[in-house]
Amino acid sequence: MSGKVISASEETVHLGLKRTLRKECEINKKERIKSARRTKYALMNSDLHGTNGLNPKISVTIYKSYVLPRLLYGLEVLTLTKAQMELLEKFHKETLRSIQSFSKRMAIPAIFLLPGVLPVEGEIHRKKLTLLHAILSCDNSKLKEILKRQISVNCNNPKSFFHQSILLLQQYNLPNILDQNRKLPSKVVWKKNPEIHNQ
């Protein structure tokens, strides 16, 4: 361009996610953990550290409002491996354990049940299903065309968002809302009580 050679970039940032040809999920997983860790350390001055800090209920609310969104941002559109999910889960568990001043021997279910927080995998599944509903209920005609094409072309591709969505719907015994013949439930019903549509 204008007599200058433009080198092709192997990495770009789109909506806060790094897009690359290789190791995209690995790079984004590391970035998410780094961002969440920075946010957590920035909140330490506000007594978000467990022992002699804020009330654990308030600390968990702050964690869910500020740190957890940083940890999970954009991960609902990526295909994470089990190892990558475990590293995210490790950060999540360690933070919840320290906020509640639990020892390392504390049973894992108690770490999640007492503050009422889902594991990372559950949070990502919820975000995926919410995104799926948002896409399907959108009124944009161009998006609808892309959606139809993606469903017809990529339903059998294991790395496709729609393939993963079908597996999630089956995993949670939810109706296949990708089926054109089925009426799409409202967002409130879909989020609060999806079992109604199985009847």
Strand order of the largest sheet: 1-2
Distance between the termini: 61 Å
Q: What characterizes the major β-sheet?
A: 2 strands, antiparallel
The chain-level mean pLDDT equals: 82
The whole-angstrom Rg is 20 Å
Assembly category: single chain
Low-confidence stretches: 194-199
The H-and-E topology, N to C, reads as EEHHHHHHHH
Note the overall shape.
globular
Characteristic terms for this protein:
single chain, 199 residues, mainly alpha, 2 domains, two-stranded antiparallel sheet, 8 helices
Set out the fold topology.
Blueprint: E1 11-14, E2 17-20, H1 24-42, H2 56-72, H3 82-99, H4 108-113, H5 120-136, H6 141-154, H7 161-171, H8 187-192
Antiparallel strand pairs: 1-2
Helix pairs in contact: 1-2, 1-3, 2-3, 5-7
Give structural notes:
This protein is mostly helical. It folds into 2 domains: 11-117, no CATH class; 125-198, no CATH class. 54% of the residues lie in helices and 4% in strands. The protein is built from 8 helices and 2 strands. It has a two-stranded antiparallel ribbon with strand order 1-2. Strand 1 (11-14) and strand 2 form a beta hairpin. Helix 1 (24-42) runs antiparallel to helix 2, helix 1 (24-42) runs parallel beside helix 3 (82-99) and helix 5 packs across helix 7. The radius of gyration is 20 Å and the shape is globular. The chain starts with 10 loop residues before the first strand and ends in a 7-residue tail after the last helix.
